[in-house]
Amino acid sequence: MADTTIRSADEVEVEATREVTPPRRIPRSLLIGGGIVGLFLVLAVIGPHITPYPFDKFHFGSRLAPPSEEFWWGTDRYGRDIFSRVIAGARLTVLMAGAGTIIGVAVGLLIGLFSGYVGGWIDEILMRLTDIAMSFPGLLLAMLVVAALGSNEINAVLSIGIVFTPKVARVVRSATLGLRHVQFVEAAEVRGESNSFIIFREILPNVWPPIIVETCIRLSYAVLLVVSLSYLGLGAQPPAPDWGLMIAKERAFLATAPWVVFAPAAAIVSLIIGVNLFGDGMREWLAARKTADE
Amino acid sequence: MNRAAAAARATEPDIPVLSIRDLHVSYFARGQEIRAVRGVNITVRAGETLALVGESGSGKSSVAFSAMRGLDAAGRIMKGSIHFGATDLLALNAQELRAIQGSRIAMVYQDPQTALNPGFRVGDQIAEVLKEHTDGTPSATRERVLQLLEEVKLPDPANVALRYPHELSGGQQQRVLIAMAFACNPQLLIMDEPTTGLDVTTEAHILDLVANLQRSHGSAILYITHNLGVVARFCQRVAVMYAGEILEEGPVSRVFSKPAHPYTRSLLSCIPRLDLSKHDRPLSAIEGRLPNLANLPQGCIFAARCEFRREICEQSAIEAENVGKGTEDFVRCVRWRDIPKFKFDRHIRKRKPGGKSKQAAGLLDIEDLRCYYQLRRSFRDFITGQKLRQVHAVDDIELEVGHGQTLAIVGESGCGKTTLGRTVVGLQPPTSGEQIFEGDELEGTARARSADLRRRIQIVFQNPDATLNPQKSVGETIRRPLQLFELVPPEKQADRVTELLRSVNLPASYAQRYPHELSGGEKQRVAVARAFAAEPELIVCDEPLSALDVSVQAAILNLLVELQKTSKTAYMFISHDLSVVRYLSDQVAVMYMGRLCEIGTPEDVFVPPYHPYTEALLSAISLPDPLISQETIRLEGSVPSPVNPVPGCRFASRCPRKIGAVCETEDPPLHAFGKNHRLYCHIPREELEKMKPVITYAGKKRAVV
Amino acid sequence: MLKYLVRRTGLLALTLLGISAMIFIIVQILPGDAADQILEAWVESEGGAHDILRAKLGLDRPWYEQYFGWLWGILHGDLGRSLSMDAPIGPILFERLGFSLRLAIPALVISVVLSLILGVIAAVRPNGVVDSLITVVTLTGVSVPAFVSGSLFILIFAAWLNWFPSTSSLSEGSGFFHWAYVLALPVAVLTLESLAHITRITRSSMIEVLKTPYVRTARLKGLPRRLVLYKHALRNAMLPTLTVIAFNIGWMLGGVVLVEQVFSYPGLGSLVLFAIEQRDTPLLQASMLFVAAGYCIANALADIGYALLDPRIRYT
User: Counting C-beta atoms within 10 Å of the first and last residue's C-beta, which end of chain B has fewer, N or C?
Assistant: First the structure.
């Protein structure tokens, strides 16, 4: 860098007065939530390989066995090791919730950017359509879609994507609208930049914060939807080690062998709490970053 | 202490209404202590107005809120005492404090729109104060509310009382807040930038109103502002604050004629004035930034930016030294006796008829330009059959920008000046009319124009925080026009960026920075560099200074003048500030409701004959010079709706010089004075020529220009 | 305001039309048609029987005739016939709706009242002890799916403590106390979840509103804290809360599926599930329309409430 070797006196002074911003404190909820989510991600990758028993192995001698050294969290009515099933099930839940969220966010993002930037009648029509799609409670719409397409994991993922798309589109659209007439976008228009340059190079980098927050919210709903659909028999099918499915199938033994429900319930709740904590922390962090920038 | 006792003590004669001693206020954020106010002493007596003046970050608002114990949760009073009359405000408990707040001490806020609760009728919001602090019956309260609204000169008080805040204009909202403040005859009124954000004509009204109310109620006023013009016009004493300390205090007449502190001197000489033009001298800007309040320097707080600093300034704390008699006329500077005398360079010019007629050849010709836009007809409007509503933002404008010259467009908010600028750069397609740019007709939208035409017309926007993409580095931002218009080969672009940064007085290292690391002034410099990167022939500057502090504003103005000299780029400079326009422009166009009122050189426009609207504007502005005398011409009412406007002269409904029905039925004719001075008005030429100057130096006859 | 009402109602009607179309389209995608479902019972049906049944059910008509026929019927109070129960849908639907409302209304009332109070208490001292406690509880509330909390409630209060029944069948007995006894657990589950959502939004919007200049104005007028909080701040903080309340109404109308399933309760949600399992298309169409309409009406009411609270909306 040739130009940095010669520095005028005033430049040095300007450097010196540069605001020293103290390090940004990362919210505790972001750390804890991130830790929990990270743990489940690791389980999703290696879970099926580290279980003490194959998740679908029957131990007919020890049906509904209470937690013991042999079966840490007990067994279910077929004598399958619940610990192994919960660990192995992480992959399914994480994959389904993640894939559903990604579909919803990706499609919603494109629709929202386009609708918000182009405006006019196209925007009006797209938004009326999202209004209609959002007039169904999420779970019911997902149920309807799964009913139409057939009950399996793929369709459950698709249905989550369909439920999320209009909501994400709304969020992205309002963020885009907020930037539509901001001066740096207008400056690009005056320069004569193309639509795609303005949408993807000027606007998109600035809508990431609301998109990230929305993605976190969606992710927690996605987990809820996944386990609820499988609980209702509209998602993964037996003998998959799905947490919702496990609760649905073993609930009959709740009174005598509560561990059949405890373990998957604990897994579900801790994953969703983790995602929610992560989302809350992320929102707090992004908001703090924004105020620090201003 | 009960309410009555507090009130009684506050009214004892020799005791000042407000006395603040050695006040220290700190804010705590992310483990840091920001020492926003340090060692401030303030005394305000009954019937007196003390101005607390300073730029952003000076801590003036913290003092104001401390004075009524109204700091928010993040701010803490660390040290000092605050006495209201004989009452020690810091010793009161919450309930005792509440009895004083809103009744004996009241406050008027900066942004009236956000200071009023959007969910309640304004009458109820005023009545609330009375219910809390007086024992009147409901009907007496209602009566008093109407009386207050009448007192602040709101038309039709009974009707206004029933309105919600959003149904009132900014000026009307501020009147409501003033009525609320005077509801219980406060002994102390704290006004925190009450006219910032209002148009000059509205500001003039509000200041007149407060002055009258103060006379009749005998309140003491602590007036917080950044506007030295308002101080000169409205206040008796002034305290100049910088970075949390009062650097100088004294009677307005002394401080404005013999400012002792280098900071006060720089402030006074960095403001453009109505008698100052770019041909006279550059403005004196204050270089550098505010010190970091979390890590204070030793010695004088202003030393780092002071042109007169010596070693002694930075060694130890600076004591206040008396300038005149008494402890309320002091300066906090060790060298104030040694530095050269301050000279206020007032100009009185002989007017040359026809102005400086060195009109340059035309660059941009605007003919009969109209820009109407329809309020968006939403799907819902479609269902309910809402009629088409048309805003006449720009209505039949004809003007010319000369090569290398500055044409200023001036007017109050809603006059169409911004729309006009947007039309020129192709952000707002015109409804009809022509724009000829050096022989080429300009298409309505930027995208329809050729790349070369787009390059030759650039824009600098108003809000420094929105003008740069926060996700792009300064280098990327400035490089983009170079790439897009293929002005510089890729390998030389970095050098060119450096060169451009240097031309706006920023170091080359700034190319790596992101907008959030820059101050407002620096962002605006980058925006100027981006505009100049395209090597344009015309730059539309849309209020580029209005969000900046005066000292920063001066630096940008100097920069614009400097760059124009070297590049011969023409400016279309859109502004509401007559002094700035006077300083920078070669031609001035005054607009009102989409129409042109008057156009000519500043020496033509700011002296008689005036358009009645120009005359009213000149009468309304506040100038930072106590020796100025101004005619009092106040416009009644507010700007009518630009939706489907009535025929005739647009200004007729508020014109103090309206001559009759003709004003409301026919478009005003053109009067040409000299070569370049055009004026659209029904008043006969002879009458116009007899007009008297609005602004003169006391005792002089000639107009200040 | 009247103009706003008219406009909002018009929009509601349009949305309902769109919803009916969407339900119709999705249900049309369902594999096979109603004739297949009925004939499934007879393994070897004659080829002719299928066509005859299709004609009888009107399935041979073009789709638009079917759609408008369905709409026409609804407008005249005819919701169609259930295939699996072989009975008119209308009475079934209204009976189930009644059952669902008995769960939803108490849950909604309790959760709205409680959460407004909790939200304000939490917002007054953000990050204080009370706020942290409320935050933890509500975070858990939004993170526990209804079927999990339902199962745990049954385990604790029905199986272990034996205070309440584990299933909420309504076959025998009547009177308020019986109802309260039977419905306590499902209502508690519903309340917990909706309480958590509404408290969270009330808290965060209250925190925002408490930072606004107009709240400061109210404070510096010398108004007592109670007035500042509940009159000036809460009124404006209610705006986003209203939207979430409307969302919860919708969720309760349809999302009770899970709760009803857990407690074997014969509400609207379990009817939808039943229709899906039985591939009873007319029943599915009608019950989905019911739920979505309920949700839309709740949203419209929330918007109108919004306009009442925020005068700026009324005139735009």
Answer: N
